[in-house]
Specification:
The protein is built from 6 helices and 11 strands. The strands form 2 sheets. Strands 2-1-3-4-11-10-9-6-7 form a 9-stranded mixed β-sheet. A two-stranded antiparallel sheet has the order 5-8.
Length: 266
């Protein structure tokens, strides 16, 4: 075989090898949040164990676990030790639900913050429940992760009572088909931040007449964030529409279709 034909053969073999490598890459498993609707189930960790005294995490965390598991695809577990945020085992879960706020106490520390940041930016899901927006005060990056955070200089919320939650993103996968609803809760007016977010639901304050986001989504790195400030107590979290909103938000954050293929009534 002369030199010219040898060069042609090497070029051909190189092309075949490149195609093979590319095809192999297509088969690589992507993080759950990068392949929405493809997985059949997701492991969900509810992280709790510390809260503002008026928010009874020992009552709300079990309820969250119970109603999230009504979507059989969501395999829930509850962890009441915030130090778990620093554990490598965190990355075994597809989404983290923060039912946590380190009120007047230190957060779990630098390694926990770095691990949480890595968890989300590498493609896992994060869900913030109610006053989780107030966690990690002093950690600037948390605002970019959460999308909006509690600003203690702002008015906290309307007096506890009944108000209407209006669905404003009718075409988003989480809220598609959901109707506006009434709930008895705290209408938060204390969120602050400049991150570009998509508001899914809002409510109008009876105190100042302004609209405030009740649920929204954010992206951080390759991860998805669903942030909802509803859910002050068991009563608020027992509202069927609130439960459905959280179920859909958690599924979406974990990389699943928000509603199972079989469909379930909103």
């Amino acid at each position: 075989m002369n030199e010219r034909w040898m060069r042609r053969l090497m070029v051909s073999l190189g092309g075949v090898l490149a195609v093979g490598v590319a095809m192999a890459g297509l088969g690589a498993k992507a993080p759950a949040a990068d392949r929405p609707g493809q997985a059949s189930q997701a492991k969900i960790l509810i992280l709790t164990g510390n809260e503002y005294p008026g928010n009874k995490w020992r009552e709300t965390a079990p309820l969250l676990s119970k109603f999230l598991a009504q979507d059989a695809r969501l395999k829930t577990a509850v962890q009441d030790n915030p130090d778990f945020l620093a554990s490598p085992e965190l990355h075994e879960y597809d989404a983290l639900v923060l039912n946590y706020m380190n009120w007047e106490s230190p957060d779990p520390g630098e390694s926990a913050r770095a691990n949480l940041k890595r968890f989300v930016e590498n493609g896992k899901g994060l869900v913030l429940v109610h006053f989780a927006c107030g966690a990690f005060q002093g950690w600037a990056e948390f605002q970019n992760i959460a999308g909006r955070i509690w600003n203690p200089k702002l008015r906290g919320h309307d007096p506890h009572g009944k108000f209407t939650v209006e669905i404003v993103a009718e075409d988003h996968p989480i809220t598609r088909g959901l109707k506006s609803f009434e709930t008895v809760d705290e209408l938060y007016t204390c969120l602050d931040g400049q991150k570009d977010i998509q508001v899914l639901a809002k409510a109008t304050s009876k105190v100042d007449g302004k609209d405030y986001p009740m649920a929204f989504v954010n992206h951080y790195g390759r991860g998805r964030v669903f942030h909802c400030v509803l859910g002050h107590d068991v009563q608020a979290l027992s509202t069927p529409a609130v439960q459905e909103l959280y179920r859909r938000g958690v599924a979406w954050a974990a990389g699943l279709a928000p509603v199972p293929q079989s469909g379930r009534a909103p």
